[in-house]
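Handout, page 2. Input:
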Amino acid sequence: MKKYGFLLLILVIMAGCVSQKRIVLIQSPKKQASYDYPAGKRREVKIEPMDELYINVNSIDQSGYNFFKPDMGATMSITEASIAVLSYTVNDSGFILLPFLGKLKVSGLTTEEAAIKIQEEAKSRLNSPMVSVRFVNSYVTVLGEVQKPGTYSYLKQQMTIFKAIGLASDLTEYGNRRKVALLREDKNGVHKYYLDLTKDDIINSEFYYLRPNDVIYIEPLKVRWWGMKEFPFMLLMAALTNYLLIWNYSKKG
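Output:
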């Protein structure tokens, strides 16, 4: 009876443990000190319909390029709020409407390519125009088994899936790193993809760099489904210990 009690205790403790292979991220199939991952064009984020773009146009001709900007006041500072006001929305057909230049198709282009296209169009109106384009109101949502689930904004042009998880203060120990759901919306609807963050080929995948408004959902491991995270191990161990003491005492009696 004593042997079975200890065996039960060991099984309960092991049931609440998570294998290291299920926790470590970006595991390489070969054991080596370092590895270089080549860059690829597929990492460039393309502009899509309903994206918000901040377009800054500068020129030697001061009066000319001011037509590209609404009158926000001479002393207005450049903040995230003002940038949002000065942004342009890409319509369902992939076009933006600019003063003087009219409709320009920018969907399918990177922000750098869109800036070059607008700059070329602006040469007919402005003297030596300089154009910069960036995304506005870029958000990513991280849900499920993370320390701080929520929606996070970011300013950089590129956000990786690991940086997004970092914004949520990392996964919990019961987050299923082998089956992470990525929800991505475009003009054709919402698409759901499953990613394995424990494999290093995630770095070369098309999902390593996120798009604005992507949603990441971290599923719980089965041990979490069974409620083992909150399981009262200390209470169980104390109960088993007391039971064994009583059993030993009764045997001696």
